[in-house]
Amino acid sequence: MTEKKVVSKEKVFHLLMLGMFFKILFTGYLLINLTAERHDTQPEIPGTDDISFHFAPKQYPVLNEVPAVLHIIILDSRGNWIDNAEVNASLRYQDKELSLDFYHVEDGLYESRAIFSSHGDWTGEAFIYLNKEHRTFPLKISVL
Q: In sequence order, what DSSP letters do the residues of the chain get, joined into one string?
């Protein structure tokens, strides 16, 4: 015959409390990550909630005088890719200006290549032409 192991109520209680602790810890982790500020370089822009716009370089850091690949991702309000837009951008730093044409890669991803002639914080705008409408979004990129 096999012996039955008896587990004390105290051990069961401790295991339940440990499980609850980890559940609360995991829930807190999810809440923090889901409500945390995003790490892309673009702020939330009022009045453009029908399009989700994200701008970032393909690789960090972006270096002065080194070719960089820049990405823009565009989605509609339902999370569907927008793949029929015309996307251009203009970036400035001090007296220097850089004009970029983005080409469609796949889904809602657009790509352009750039060589930045100075290090610093370049700012500018992305111009999105979609369904006979024009939208402008601010851009910022740090170049080392």
A: -PPPPPPPHHHHHHHHHHHHHHHHHHHHHHHHHHHSPP-SS----TT-TTEEEEEEESSSSB-TTS-EEEEEEEEETTS-B--S-EEEEEEEETTEEEEEEEEEEETTEEEEEE--SS-EEEEEEEEEEETTEEEEEEEEEEE-
Q: Name the one residue in this structure whose structure tokens are 């914080």.
A: 121
* pLDDT for residue 124 is more than 60: yes
Beta bridge partners of 136: 127
Cα separation, 78 vs 90, whole angstroms: 28
Global pTM exceeds 0.85: no
In single-letter form, the type of residue at position 124 comes to G
Strand partners, 124: 91, 139
C-alpha 92/C-alpha 141 separation (Å) is 10
